[in-house]
Specification:
With 414 residues, the protein is α/β, with parallel strands linked by helices. Helices cover 52% and strands 13% of the residues.
Amino acid sequence: MNNEIFIGRQPILDSDRQTFGYELLYRNGPHTAMLSESPDDATRCVIERALLQWGMEKIIGNRFGLINASASLIVAGLHRTMPPEGIIFEICESTPFDDPTYDALVGARHDGYHFALDNVTRLSDLVGSRLLPHASIVKIELCDALESEIPRLIEVARERAPGVLVAAEKVETAADFARCLEFGFDLFQGYFFAEPEVLKRPARPANVASAMALLAEMQRTDIDIDRTVELVGSDPSLTFRLMAIANSSAFGLDRRVDSLRHTVILLGLGQVRRMAGLIASSTEGGASEELIRLGATRARMIGSLVPGGAASSIGFTVGLLSVTDAIYHTPMSELVRELPLSTEIASALVDGTGALGRALDIVRACEAGDVARLAELDAGSFEHLRLMYAEAIEWADDLRAQIISPIVRAHQLV
């Protein structure tokens, strides 16, 4: 049975009780309790699931998505895995940030990213805040001890950050909401409106070692498109995850693609590098190594059976994706709907039609040693195909060993 993943979502409303956006929350089960030893790990999981597993447009639509993050994750550049449009990072400034942290936050703001100053409970949180002048939202927690200070908190927030939206957190009752309207809050969040909804779906895990190897290789200054495609193409699960991004309107990439190479070009090397880092640091499982090797073998052979630059690249992609139904225990027709595939590729994978479908049939017959089926397909000399298939196996094994061995050795030294 396929593993399931979860994410929490709680609406944030405006004064007309229309949905402004959703706070996205880490969940590791179907219930509302959050269980994570590391807040930073929880943030990485939320981003990875929202961006790479669901797709931001499926979770927040045309609303805003608010995600808790520590300032250290912004310093590390994690925010760059997300598009600046529609995403707001909630940051708690318990003490004023030092200069490097402040500079990183200001730089991110200049790049179009938005911040919410979170968990404000007293006036000193605003008076001493370096982030406040650059914040788009200030979230003030309701509590009895704070209520007399709320008018002043709202006033200071708007004085120091003109145009800022002030949000009331923990609005639990109708009376709370009425008081917050009188105070002049712009946004409202709490159990009075809705408890966090827990969304679930089948997981689409990637191989951790493959993602780590890709990340390590992409630190090289001489990395290029061809090497990146080779690295990603060593693992069908990694290919699936990256191609799914190209189906995301969040990056303006909601278009058909005809190969893994096309996907890498659309995303750009910088974004592929960031995605590899996100997958390596947040994925909780991996695909069968045997299925990964099988997918790489099929990719190599179909790429050889369909000669020519673009055609070979398309054939390579078909081979890689042909094992994803086994990896994810999901019908191929369902998986294809999650990817921005051309009709030619989708038809080959689902129906086995066209030249690509025929090439896939030939490879499967080679795997089974089915000479009769090869003759029926008029595939050519069995000996030639046998040698071609043996070369594809050798290529896949060599590439996997080249990529994975350094990672295995590093783990053994820990």
